[in-house]
Hints:
Elements: H1 2-20, H2 22-32, H3 37-63, E1 74-81, E2 87-93, E3 96-102, E4 107-113
Antiparallel strand pairs: 1-2, 2-3, 3-4
Amino acid sequence: xxxxxxxxxxxxxxxxxxLFSPLxxxxxxxxxxxxxxxxxxxxxxxxxxxxAVIIILxxxxxxxxxxxxxxxxxxxxxxxxxxxxERLMIVEVAGQKLLLGVTAERIDCLxxxxxxxxxKGQQKP
Length: 125
């Protein structure tokens, strides 16, 4: 009876050793790998398609100057760069034109412009 129990123990131990051995694992993963030849090609093709769609959509947004957020009551009429992080801007808010000084730290209203002020290249409605 002791020999039967030890035989069962040896068979279980050898089965577990075979199951967890690196060679068995390597053979098993090589045949059942989710990244086998054709799968890698399909994955790369899908990645290229997704990247192409992202680039095309970004170029469309840039070309047509689409703004995801906008307000009909506010318009930037003109902007002039004074340095790397400083600029002068003329904006129209609720029908009133404002000259703004914009820096990295703050935005200051420098002057309220009269409605009679016209900018070059601006068309009258």
